[in-house]
Amino acid sequence: MSKYQHIQEAAYEANMQLPKLGLVLFTFGNVSEADRDLGVFAIKPSGVAYKELSPAKMVIVDFEGEVVKGKLRPSSDTLTHAVLYKHWEKIGGICHTHSVHATSWAQSQRDIPIFGTTHADYNTVDIPCASPMSDEMIKGNYEYETGFQIMNCFKERNLSYEEVEMILVGNHAPFTWGKTADKAVYNSGVLESIAQMAWLTEQINPNAARLKESLIRKHYQRKHGPESYYGQ
Ligand SMILES: [Zn+2]
Question: Is the pTM of this model over 0.90?
Answer without folding.
Answer: yes
